[in-house]
Model the fold of this input.
Amino acid sequence: MKKYPSKISYGLPFFILAVLIGTTIPTIFKPVWIGLLINTVVLLFTLHLFLNTYYVIDGEFLIVKSGMMFNKKVDINSVKNIKETKTIISAPALSFDRLEVNWGKYTGVVISPKDKKRFIDHMTRINPLIDVPIKM
Done:
């Protein structure tokens, strides 16, 4: 079993913190407790996502984990291709330097392992038929 942490685009947490700080300051000076509570919950949820987004290769399975809400198990032998993507769609990825892992005809997941090369090498050792059109 090998765990691959998600790469983090540092602009993303700074943006989230800036929004949370910007909306929290007015709730402190003119106490709006519900606003402060909501921002605290959003901050804790975001922190949980950043600490718990990773990818595990366990035997012949890829497990994609992002917080408590996203947990996907994929048979690596069913993976057709892995390609780079810069998509901004919501995904269990903390970076915009992403990989799209596809299996089946219209099924896939977008992830952002910190060490893309080692992740792809590990996947292709398990399933050498995976098409990887990436220049590494």
